[in-house]
Amino acid sequence: MTPKKRLNYSYYPGCSLHASGREYDISTRALFKALGLGLKEVPDWFCCGATPAHNVDELLSLSLCAKNLKMAEEVEGDLAVACAACFSRLKHAQHKITHDETRRRQVETAIDGPADVKKPVKHILEILAREVGLAKLEENVKKPLLGLKVACYYGCLLTRPPEVPELDDCEDPSIMEDILRALGAEPVQWSHRMECCGANFTLSRPGVVMKLSNAILDSAQFAKADCIMVACPLCHGNLDIRQESIENKNQASYELPIFYFTQLVALALGVPSTDLGFDSVIIDPRPLLREKQLI
Amino acid sequence: MHAEQVKHDFEPKVVAFVCTWCTYAGADLAGTSRMQYPPNVRVLKFPCTGRIDPVFILRAFQKGADGVLVSGCHPGDCHYMAGNFHARRRFAAFRALLDFVGVDLNRLQFSWVSAAEGGKWVEVVTELTERVRGMGPMKEFKELELEEQWSASLSTPELKAAYDSIT
Amino acid sequence: MSRIGVFVCHCGENISRTVDVEQVAAAAGNIPGVAFSCDYKYMCSDPGQNLLKKAIAEHNLTGVVVAACSPRMHEKTFRKAAGAAGLNPYVCEMANIREHCSWVHENREMATAKASDIVHLMVERVKKGKSLAPITVPVTKKALVIGGGIAGIQAALDIADAGHQVLVVEREPSIGGHMAQLSETFPTLDCSQCIMTPKMVDVANHPNITLYSYSEIEKVEGYIGNFQVTVRKKARSVDESKCTGCGVCIAKCPKKKIPNEFDQGHGMRSAIYVPFPQAVPNTPVIDRENCTMFQSGKCGVCAKVCGPGAVDYQQEDTLTVESIGAIVVATGFKLYSIDRKPEGSMIQGYGEFGYGTIPDIVDGMTFERLASASGPTGGKILRPSDGKEPKQIVFIQCVGSRAREKGISYCSKICCMYTAKHTMLYHHKVHDGQAYVFFMDARTPGKGYDEFWRRAVEEEEAVYIRGMVSRMYQKGDKIIVMGSDTLVGVQVEIEADMVVLATAVQPQEGADLLAQKLGISYDKYNFYSEAHAKLKPVECATAGIYLAGACQGPKDIPDTVSQASAAAAKVMTLFAKDQLERDPVVAKVNEKYCVGCFACKKVCPYGAIEEKEIKDRQGNVVKVIAYVNPGVCGGCGTCQATCPSKTVELDGYTDEQIMAMIETL
Amino acid sequence: MPQIITEANLRSLIDSLVKESKLVVGPKEAGSMVLYQPLSNGADLKLGALPRRSSKELFFPICEDILTFGKEDGVTKVKDVDRASFPDAVLIGALPCDAGSPSILDAVFSWDYNDDFYLERRKKSTIVGIACTSCDDACFCTAVGYAPDSPAGSDLFLTPLKDGSYACNAVTEKGEKLVSAHGSLFKEGAAADAAPLAAPDTAKLDLAKIKEWLNTHFEDPLWQSIADVCLGCGACAFICPACHCFDINDEGTPDHGTRRKHWDACGFGKFTNHASGHNPRDIQNKRYRNRIMHKFKYYDDKFGKTLCTGCGRCIRACPVGIDIGDILNKINVQAG
Amino acid sequence: MNAKAQKAKGCGIEPAYYDAVTQAIRSEAVKVLKEGAVSAVIGYLPGRRKSAAVPAVVTTEEEAGRLIFSPACVNNLSLYLTKAKKGILPGGKIGIVAKGCDLRALAGLMGESQIKRDDLFIIGINCAGVQGAVAAGNGQLTEASIAKKCRECTAHTPEGVDFVAGTLPHLDGLTPLEAEELARIEAMPQAERWAYWKEQFSRCIRCMACRQVCPFCYCEQCLCDKNRPQAVESSPRPAGNTAWHIVRAMHLAGRCAGCAECERSCPMDIPLNLLNRRMAQELKELYDYEASMAPQEKGPLNQYKEDDDQSFIK
What we know:
The complex is a heteropentamer.
Chain C (H helix, E strand, L loop, with lengths): L3 E6 L11 H9 L4 E7 L5 H13 L4 E6 L2 H14 L7 E5 L1 H5 L5 H20 L7 E4 L3 E5 L3 H12 L3 E5 L14 E2 L4 E2 H14 L3 E4 L2 E9 L2 E8 L14 H5 L5 E3 L6 E3 L2 E2 L11 E2 L5 H5 L4 H5 L12 E7 L1 E4 L3 E3 L25 E3 H8 L20 E8 L15 H15 L4 E6 L9 H11 L3 E4 L2 E7 L2 E8 L4 E7 L1 E6 L1 E3 L3 H8 L26 E3 L9 H19 L3 E4 L4 E3 L9 H5 L5 E7 L5 E8 L9 H5 L5 E3 L4 H9 L2
Parallel strand pairs in C: 1-2, 1-3, 3-4, 6-7, 6-18, 7-10, 18-29, 20-27, 21-22, 21-27, 22-23
Antiparallel strand pairs in C: 5-30, 8-9, 11-12, 12-17, 13-14, 15-16, 19-28, 24-25, 25-26, 31-34, 32-33
Helix pairs in contact in C: 1-5, 2-3, 5-18, 6-7, 6-15, 11-12, 12-13
Chain D lengths: L2 E3 L1 H13 L3 E8 L2 E6 L24 E10 L2 E6 L8 E6 L1 H4 L1 H9 L6 H8 L1 E6 L25 E5 L5 E5 L2 H9 L5 E2 L18 H10 L4 H7 L7 H5 L6 E7 L3 E8 L20 H20 L9 H5 L6 H12 L1
Parallel strand pairs in D: 2-6, 6-7, 7-8
Antiparallel strand pairs in D: 1-9, 1-10, 2-3, 4-5, 4-12, 8-9, 11-12
Chain E lengths: L1 H9 L4 H21 L4 E7 L6 E6 L2 H4 L29 E5 L1 H12 L8 E6 L22 H4 L11 E3 L11 H11 L2 H13 L6 H4 L25 H15 L8 H5 L6 H16 L27
Parallel strand pairs in E: 1-3, 3-4, 4-5
Antiparallel strand pairs in E: 1-2
Helix pairs in contact in E: 7-9, 9-11
């Protein structure tokens, strides 16, 4: 038997995880600790430009990511990213800079140095499913999520466009469902796994968000899901924070707790629920978890 | 957006021995598709990779090639059915021989490029050219060309110049 | 001493934009042995060719290099011109400074230097070139048509009507192909089977046509005028010579619940079956995978009921070798499926449409069968899942086609028209139904085509929505179609009862394998490549092989029939001669030096090398050496590369020519 | 009184000659063998073994450029090799069977045509010969009129003495000059006893009789019997001190190239191949016959010399064991 | 243990073994000539020098009675059957003395249609070994004088011959010097290997002994003698020498019988057999081909398999 080397990752949390998505950050750290993985935050990281920068100034959005990636070189291990928007931006910048010589040169001028963007960027889903492995996850389950019906919600950024993130099947991914099955939960078949939640229109055009997010909540309910699991703080915000006003507007009643996948995985691996930020969300998930005897 | 073609300090000579049916046509396709690649390659057309004699490769190195590419049809696609299969064995053996006498095989590339693979042609040529550029001139054979048995060696400036102009 | 003429073409600006053609011509003038050099705007034009002819005469040229486009484009043109001026065509060569230089480089200085080098290479090649005389070979006046769809049928009938023997080889148990499956055809809405089946019968009855159905091409050897084709006749388990086509076996077969391929799996057939009632030949075939007799050894009903005793369970595949002079490839197409594709495949499926798991999402061919009077529903539009009549139906165009992200970037050409046809058929059959069409563009060039499309939109009440569908999912017994209407700028959602996808046209399964047997080239999608996109649209680069129909690219019926007739005309042109002149690029043995090791014979892919005895004047055998049969030699040159002493040499690619080129490096 | 030079001083002599920018050539260890090669200092000199190749290549290189040609500005220009650039050379430690060869070859290279390449090199070189103290069963110098202590061809001739030093005899003016220019390294004095010389185990051949036999036996079964097995390689000719055939080749392209002269051998099948394809010496024994005829008849006819110094190299090198000493003995016997 | 140590000292082979082989060859050669079964026998006659034997084509019983086998009988006589040496054999069936390694060459020549088995009477030798290129002069075979190829011989016993001469004595295992040398060179960094061969090839004088002695170099017109076009410079300069030796090795790849005559004949001691062995090793690894004593229809470079290795092709 060869002794297993401890996997170490550098970590780019992104601004959401330090603010509205704090529980995503907390649960991610707890999860890594539980799995015995190293996770070291890149010192002095800054905004990735998500999500509006590339619509306004592409060079800026690339340069922000290039600089972040360059700084990440200082920390050991592949770069772990939790936020779907950060992940998308970093991967996109990598792709663009590697494939477009002109852009690369412009970025190099902008950041005043070589555009060193080779650091492998990995979403935490990827790390769990591929690097840790489903078998090992299953092995380490302490509290199987039995009877929990989960609508896995991927959102629009995680797998698109196909050539950039290379995370999973662009239109029909299964990585979240695979992980959940390993934990003993019951992912539901539903229609809106990939639809847009309205993302960053949340402040500028809330009407759009209300409509799109409503469709998501509605179809999750139609599929008899107990809750929705997400991998993006923007999605989480729209589905969780706005849920009540969506219900009001549409005369509906959803009461669907929104989990970060890190929360559910960590919970299944035996991390105490008090360490996972369940208290800092709007739709309190604890009644559901209690009902399913998970806490 | 194409990479701008700028002259480098060292422009390697790259020779490509290609079959007319697949790789030559693939290179034509790269042309009609207006793809861009380094202008260092000189293409010698053969009916088939089966026609390509290892001596040609050797001779090309002797005559100043810094890199040699041999390219033909994918296995099974040979216009002549089996020419490329024979070529494959011949070149597998020849590579081993060159390696044994100390020739850096990074200078000798074999590839299958079909008539539909203009992009692969560009990729293969670009990769070889840039690799060879990084390696610098193929000095081994060039040095040999200048060397003499001791009894004949002269080092007059004129002769040196004459040699320089040959190689 | 050679007197070579070098002619540098500007190709309008195609070359001169990047290459300093004057400098190239001037540099060529300095090459030893070059007697004349010039540059000209369009060498391939008449004045350009005249310039060449005039220079050959005036400067007494012994060889010519035309620096212009790829020899694959114009080598014949200039060789002909050189020949007209009295020069041997084979001392005329092209230096490819367009595809291999001006089009692929931007730096003028370097491109010019490269062009000069390319010219120099070719000058050396021509200097060492020899005059060659064309070789004549006999022509076997029998054509092979591969594929018995409308393309193959048309080509076969045309060639047979011209008085030549034709062998038609069809993979399926019956000829007819996709056209036999169609309900009605655009733009006239005439019944497909009504116009198709008479032609099928003509094939069956034509005295000059031999039909091998349920057969495949095993091996192809030889060359234009002289192919040896091995055909595998698959075991039909029914003796064609005995069967009367009475159909009793089919009626009595106890195993009847097998999805019928002809009906896209929506109708049922028995284990012994003919694909459809009008099949040609009308001889049943036993589907051994589904036949109880073959699976368990118990049954044998069909054999018992067969009067003539035609059923033969012992029948095996047979191989037949045929001598063929020309080949028409007409293997047709298949439809793209939205199913998940294997890992690493260039082509992707549609996850957003459920990867083919939603039963009421069907493709266009299934709709044809549903709409066909002879189809599984007797011509009623009923959806597969529950047999209900769909009241809201959505047609989606460009599924797979023009979808680079799915791996196919081409337009399938026929979908706009057949979708319009489908909306009409639907409207005619379901009067209270509503058809919606999602489309990117409506492409309707063709006689009467746009009028037809307009009719669908304006008179037959189809709602055309310009935009794509982003997602479809099952909700209850409805299919929710989410799309966008880009003209209005809104998202639309339709609760459909059934969805019909106009999926992309792809080459037939195994097209690449057949191409490898034939030695013809194909593109990355496996469509067969014509020799020239514009000027040789039916010829393959491999002489003696011609293309007809959708195997070369998506085509509708009129285009397919036209191309099939064109291919037939090419075959007839070939058959008009008793002998054929062929390129003299063949190997020759230097009898003085050959020592008869026969390494060449061992490697020759054509079996062109024979043993020849050299005798002295008394008739004693002095030595046995190699001899290349010029009629059989394919000209690959593998023999020469193998011969240690190079006593076998390929004309047109001699060591002397190649070494001279290498010397210029 | 002869001059004496110690071995140490002999090596010092080489050092000084090298310092004077002379090309000093002598026996030197080269892998598994000893070859005549340029010496970079006195320590390089390896005495006591017969070098694998003869010393003729100092005057008659294995391959040398004659001229170069090339196109400049559209005009073909030819450049002769500058013979003045040939170096002043000293051949040191040549055994008598090697030192003797230039004096044989001078004749052929200055006969109807003066080969400037050979003659220039010859003029610029001084040969320091050395008496031979060891031999093997292939040596036969004494049979063809040479001897282990023959100073023929040497400008300065060294005789090994029992005390390890060498007695020096200046045979020619060149030799005297060499001594006088480096007087401090030589000393006059009574010589110690000479070291024992080599003594090849061969009887003296009657070369005149052999020539006479050759005059009348152009056709003879002997040729088949001795030379049917000859392979037709050039090993014997190339390592022979006296063989001097050469070929001239143009190498390069019409644009740029070099005309080169290099060794050739009469054993090669292509040696007399005519452009027409006809070959007057069509089979191997005819070629071998020519080798013997040339050495012992034709050269003598023309220049009064035998083209063999008896070094035995061809005997040692022949892949099929053809033994010229044995053949000459046979002819001698047949000649009576 | 003791016996082994003793054996190693003397390198085992008694002169009596060679005498016995000699006697067997003589009586068989005389017999077949006498019977008229063959018109000539190609064998070895003693040379003037102890360390030399000379190949000979003997046609009389008297000459046949002088044939020998000794450690000096190094030559691969199959050479004399090829067209390269035409004109020296009488018509009719020919007898030939062949060691195991020579037999592989005979088989190769049969595979290349140069000779027919029916035209030959092969006197095979149970061969204990012969001397190397730089053998000492006393004619005895010692561990120091045995040829390198014989140290790792896999063909001591002839197969498929008409007559076998001698009984194989006990042979001691010897260190495989050539295999070790091959491994040493293979292990060198590439630049060092180039330097090694450059030094070796620069010594070449282009005497062509390696070509002339090779049974497989029977071409009427050697590629390197051609000047239109000139594929290999004929002048003995390092450039042309290197090209020549590469071309030679390539042309022999898959054909070489491993008799190592090229290396033995080289007056400049260039280790040519290393090139041949390297190629043989590669062809064994890639295509499982080995030279054998039985003729093979096609050499490894005259055939192919569709799934041949192509890992080197992009």
